[in-house]
Specification:
Blueprint: E1 3-9, H1 15-28, E2 33-37, H2 45-54, H3 65-89, E3 92-96, H4 99-109, H5 117-129, E4 137-142, H6 145-158, H7 171-186, E5 193-197, H8 204-208
Helix pairs in contact: 2-3, 3-4, 4-5, 4-7
């Protein structure tokens, strides 16, 4: 059975770059790896509804923290069987965002922390009720909010298809979300967490080494 590794962090933190680096490092070790990114825009009706809501195309849906959280969760539920299949066929399954994103962003919207009722509600919904696979490791890519915002803005400038949504454009939300992420990492929510400094050179091989140490 393979290992389920989740990359978390603020919008603009560099999660995709980290995922690519880890994939190359794992291939260099002779390990098989596959990856998924959430939300699964273009693949899941629930993810597409999320995208529409984040750009103000579904009335006041985005105002509902719990409504948005359920859509995010249903997107992952739709991918659960594929994730389980991938874990049977690969050494590592890399996920760009997972359950912790739902917990961090929406707890931040409610001005709650990692010990608040919303984080527990997400765990009960996605893990207990929907039966999503539990990660073996979270990698929290930490960068200052200002750095993440600059990267997101540059990404938007360079690629018209990646315009910032209402979450990405809300600096206060991003700052609160970063605090919740730090709290989740501190308590090792759901699984062990490693914090990765997004401003320094990352030693990709060392990040996953504990997973394969007897």
């Amino acid at each position: 059975m393979g290992k389920l590794v989740v990359i978390e962090g603020l919008d603009g933190a560099g999660k995709r770059t980290l995922a690519n680096g880890l994939t190359e490092a794992l291939h260099a070790q002779g390990r098989s790896v596959t990856s998924h990114a959430f939300p699964r825009y273009g693949q899941s009706v629930h993810a597409d509804l999320v995208r529409d809501a984040l750009y103000g195309k579904v009335g006041d849906l985005s105002d509902s923290v719990y409504g948005m959280a359920v859509l995010y969760a249903l997107d992952r539920r739709g991918a659960a069987d594929q994730i389980r299949k991938d874990l049977e066929e690969h050494d590592v399954v890399l996920l760009d965002r997972y359950v912790a994103s739902n917990a961090a962003y929406n707890a931040a919207r409610l001005h709650q922390d990692e010990n608040g009722e919303f984080v527990e509600w997400v765990r009960a919904l996605e893990i207990d009720r929907f039966g999503l696979p539990v990660p073996d490791l979270h990698l929290l890519l930490r960068v200052p909010v200002e750095v993440a915002a600059e990267r997101a803005a540059k990404r938007e400038q360079d690629d018209d298809s990646r315009a910032r949504d209402i979450y990405e454009s809300d600096g206060g939300l991003q700052a609160r979300c970063g605090v919740v992420y730090d709290g989740l990492a501190k308590i090792n929510w759901l699984a062990p967490w490693q914090v990765v400094d997004g401003r320094s050179n990352v030693k990709f091989h060392s990040l996953l080494e504990p997973l394969f140490t007897p």
